[in-house]
């Protein structure tokens, strides 16, 4: 079962937060417990040292332990939950704090064990006694016995501190989990809301609404780029749809004209209106040739676009080939009194299909002648650098508007509204030219401005 991206993101974020909290808590608890146990041991040792120091201070060499019944030791024993017993060097008990004050300690031992979650072998309720010698000026003057319940004499304050610490960890875990849950919801919504809008727009496009556009504004670079890509795709599909409709119209026009001519001529001949003279049969033949030429162009274009083009590459001088092609156009250019300027770098040797290169040049030079004004100038250049060979053909003709410029290499596309075959042609030449250039691993670019002319730039 598929889940939404928002749920997956939220669950992943919560899982990451939970695992991080768990690891942090385990490590923190372990380190704190270790440090706390060490602290308790040190405090326990300090208590014993304090009792020993106190007893040693009360020692009188002339009358040992005369002041031993001083209430100071008794108060200290009650305060620290200790049993204190002092024996002289002969083993006689000279002071005992008694164990009545330890009854409360023993009763709460079981409670502490559950509160601290100790193991079953916990020694919180076990009673221990430790014996230490009493020294005065390097002389053993007696023995002190210290008894207590629990490990390292753990008292209520220590238990309270540890419980507070554990509670703090638990509260921190709960608060952090809630905070992480809220943040995950916010972040998942920030991520999935624009994606949801883009998905709805894509579905609209799939249903045929190519006019829709994404207006998603996001601080996430990837989402912003996705939104722009969706808009670019919608615009491209919309343009392609227009081209497809125009292609159908243009093809119908290109085929209808010769067919209509043939139909009228044949019907006139069949009805006896016309005599089948050689001139009239020649007119029908020209229309048939025009249809055949159009079909051949379509076949060539289909073969080129399907990658079935076989290039017959040879070594030849591109400079010489370009000059020869220009020479064939000079008589035609002279009809419009067009001036030719050649900036051709000599001795540019290439390994290409010479016939296909000539076809490329013929197509572009034919367009330059067709759309150039009388007495204009056509510049033809060839140069070479370390990376590429560049051919450019620049005219001073009518130019191409920015509206039509992106589509001039589309099949059957013609910028002007006229459908005259004398000016418009079939609209396939530039499509074939672009395909031939790309077949050689090159690219073709166009720069144009209405009323100032057009420049075709070919780079190999």
TrEMBL record:
Organism encoding this protein: Anaeromicrobium sediminis
Annotated localization: Membrane
Annotated GO biological process: cellular response to phosphate starvation
Superkingdom, taxonomy of origin: Bacteria
EC number per UniProt: 2.7.13.3
SUPFAM superfamilies: ATPase domain of HSP90 chaperone/DNA topoisomerase II/histidine kinase, HAMP domain-like, Homodimeric domain of signal transducing histidine kinase
Protein name: histidine kinase
Transmembrane segment boundaries: 12-32, 169-187
CDD domains: HAMP, HATPase, HisKA
GO-annotated cellular components: plasma membrane
EC class name: transferase
Domain Histidine kinase: start-end pairs: 250-460
Record-annotated HAMP domain positions: 189-242
